[in-house]
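Subject: for your reference before the review

Hello V.,

The reviewers asked for a structural picture of the protein, and I figured it would be easier to keep everything in one thread rather than splitting it across files. Below is the amino acid sequence we used in the manuscript, unchanged from the supplementary table.
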Amino acid sequence: MLLLLNFLAFLAVTGYAVYLFAQLVYSRYLFVKLGKKVDFEPNLKERINAVLVNVFGQRKLFKDKKSGLMHLVLFYGFFIIQVGLVEIIIKGFIRGYEFPFGGAYKYFSLLQEWTVFLMLCALVYAFYRRYIEKLKRLQLKRDAKAAFVIIALITLTIAILLSLGFEKVMLGKNPDFSHAPFSGVITAAFSGIGKTAGTILFYLFWWLHLLTVLSFMVFVPQSKQAHELFAMFNIFFKKVGPVGKLSKIDFEDEGIEEYGVGKIENFTQQQLIDLYACAECGRCTNMCPASVTGKTLSPMHLIVKMRDHLTETGASITSRSPWMPSFVSGTSALAPSLTAGLAAQETASTVEMPNLIGDVITEEELWACTTCRNCEDQCPVANEHVDKIIDLRRYLVMTEGRMPHEATRYFQNIERQSNPWGINRKERIKWREERDDIIVPTVNEVKEFEYLFWVGSMGSFDKRSQKIVQSFAKIMNTAGISFAILGNEERNSGDTARRMGNEFLFQQLCQENIVNFQANGVRKIVTIDPHAYNTFKHEYPEFGLEAEVYHHTELIWKWIQEGRIKPVKEVKEAIAYHDSCYLGRYNNIYDIPRQILKSVPGVKILEMERNKENAMCCGAGGGRMWIEETQGKRINVERVEQALQLSPTMIGSNCPYCLTMLTDGTKAKEAEDQVRTMDIAEIVELSLAG
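And here is what came back from the structure prediction:
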């Protein structure tokens, strides 16, 4: 009779929990479906490999090795104990039940016990990191739900061992320390209490185990633990192709009522999966240059706020309750009070929802982003933050016409003179007249050429950047390279305009440039600007560009290897090398610049604590070069301080934007007399013979 009652109670509780879980998961599915559909490129091999590496290999989690090991134990431990969970549940109805594994059962038991114990150790360590060590990135969202996860899983692991231990007391069995070492200790400790007490304690902890499992199951879809359900799908369905590539807007589509994203449902379905995949680990915000220097932007909070807003909006649009029991409510403070059942369905559609831009996400947050992609590189579930920020900027710029006044001036100058300063475009070629030891022909002055040297606006008009293009021209002359420039026919690449949200201006410049390239028979392009390099290489082809694109460091290294140029003069400098975001995280070029520096006699390379894929942005990307910083500390000053910790004699870079920001940073720190800033091309020129 007691077993029957136990079984009926089990069915009732489990059935209700499964029902709630299904409703929650299905509601999230409906909310994601509100987004715009996108074409799915199969690329199964690439997608499956991404899942294997990032989900089952936990690759990005090991950027923090301690945390990575902890999560690895929890991840695989979770799968392993599922089999044991089924057995424990059956034990509640069939006394002494064991899986029919024969002689192998003892090894199964040993695996389960050690798995549960290691999970318990990992959870204790997780508690230590969050509440005792107080790891900075974990304090970014420290609330009751984070504590619930740790407490629930610790309760689960302990309940498993207690259930197994008291089962043997109930059955009058002796402990098996060889194959059940941890539950065996419990059995031995309580062997004298008798079978009746053992039975009571077994069912007490059996129910504690079951209720913990079911509570956690219902909790998962409406919390950060939803990443356990969505992360694998997020990684599998992630857009393929070059990282950071932005979507194209079809301006000929008359059905488009607004440009960019002003409502949460105007994101794509892929972008919305991101929101529920977020693990709230804080890795993105911990590395964000805007966040660490006191700006309002936090990539993690950006995703979390949009996730909560999607849940609220989805419930309103679909008139479907999120089915959130109050003790584990997953909505934000902005959410209306939604209770389970028909009452919520009747009232949800009448709720006035907050605006995505303004109420949920502030304009200050959107304009603080440098598009460096450090957040995305750190994210273990492959979330993309930058494209969402750009889509929201597009809405502000092209639909609402709202932007910082510096951005307005920037766009006007680009439109009128094709450069950020509004300098007469006819002065674009003057830089080559300042040195008589270099030969820099235009496309109209030579019959044929191998490389088009894209000088860019910085190289053409900025006095400091002009020295970089002059050095690179000297290197090409020395190497005997056939090249030419467009001269006054050159326009702006449009990269910055695109990332500031002005897609229309970008496409106009892109099309003009491609026509110009085609008219001059351009087949190879080289530039000192990683931003132009990235957009030419990965974004222009969508608009018709057919050309090989190189960054100047790639060719310098190639020519050194071929013996075309030979750095021979000693350059006795201790160089703190700075990785630019658009060459590094966008194009995975880290070693080539270092190989060049190693080839220069006398150079000592100093690596900053944040280097390569973890390198901190200089603060110029995403249009921030042209918008004054009014919040917190200047990003370029923070980066220079990191370099100065190494006591260098020089800070080296590979980008004119970075060099400008680093130069300004040394001036702000009054260190310009002790520490020079130079591009790799300038350093190589110093080492050339003659």
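For the response letter, the relevant points are probably these. The two ends are 100 Å apart (CA to CA). Residues 323-350 have pLDDT under 50 and may be disordered.

Happy to draft the paragraph if you're swamped.

O.
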